[in-house]
Specification:
It is a single chain. The protein is of the alpha+beta class. 22% of the residues lie in helices and 41% in strands. A 5-stranded mixed β-sheet has the order 3-9-8-5-6, with no helix packed on it. The protein has a 4-stranded mixed β-sheet with strand order 2-1-4-7, with no helix packed on it. Bound molecules: copper (II) ion (CU).
Length: 109
């Protein structure tokens, strides 16, 4: 194998590794798009961190206000990703201050 071919193979291998990491992360990523969460319901283990990716062209500001867990984000600009860790079991509605119809239900086991 020529030196160039070897270099090409190592670049391809690095790209595959980066792709695998992105896929693993995607399972815990909630997309905010079209004034909605995608998916709208998710079940995770206690201690899981969910990533909230704002793919709209405008601000979101998400919050949780449950007896077992409370969280309030700052304004979340387009393209920004927030991270929320859910330490305790329960069912937690996630909403947006700016778009009251947005609802994600997180089940933590
Ligand atoms: Cu919003």
């Amino acid at each position: 194998m020529s030196r160039d071919a070897a270099a090409a193979w190592s670049i391809a291998a690095a790209a595959l590794l980066a792709c695998a990491a992105a896929l693993a992360d995607d399972a815990n990523t909630i997309v905010q798009n079209g004034r909605a969460f995608h998916p709208t319901e998710i079940t995770v283990a206690a201690g899981t961190t969910l990533n909230f990716s704002n793919q709209d062209e405008f601000l979101h500001q998400i919050y949780v206000d449950s007896p077992g867990f409370a969280y309030d984000s700052a304004e979340q600009p387009p393209g920004e990703t927030l991270h929320i860790t859910f330490p305790n079991a329960g069912t937690f509605p996630i909403r947006c201050h700016i778009h009251p119809k947005m609802l994600l239900t997180v089940h933590v086991k």
